[in-house]
Design goal:
6-stranded antiparallel sheet, globular, alpha+beta, 14% helix
């Protein structure tokens, strides 16, 4: 196994790549079967145990939630690519969820006030 961190110019994403000697089907099982996934990605770290989306054998997306306040959430995407030699490249992409939607706006936002009609 080798690992490579690819820098992502976005402040909201982290991309990791791992090469395995194992076939893609075995890596797929490790990221999708709950009993196997639990060993390295516990249910307590997930916002929900079921994937948000999945393309069989190629990509699966989960939603993570921090265990401590402010309980930020992010998406983690596992992409699987077969190697010609029978091995597998696993891409792990973690993306922050839309922070603007979850954080309250400060009182001093310096924006125009909306006034109710009298």
């Amino acid at each position: 196994m080798s690992d490579l961190v690819k820098p992502d110019h976005s402040e909201t994403s982290l991309v990791l790549e791992f090469d395995f000697d194992a076939p893609p089907a075995k890596v797929w099982r490790a990221v999708t079967i709950p009993a196997l996934r639990e060993r390295w990605l516990p249910d307590r770290d997930l916002a929900q145990a079921e994937p948000e989306s999945s393309i069989a054998g190629k990509e699966v997306r989960y939603r993570l939630r921090d265990s401590e306040p402010p309980f930020r959430e992010s998406h983690v995407i596992f992409r699987i690519e077969p190697h010609e030699d029978g091995g597998t490249r696993l891409h792990i992409i973690q993306q922050a969820c839309d922070v603007a939607m979850t954080l309250p706006q400060p009182a001093n936002t310096n924006c125009r006030l909306m006034r109710a009609a009298a």
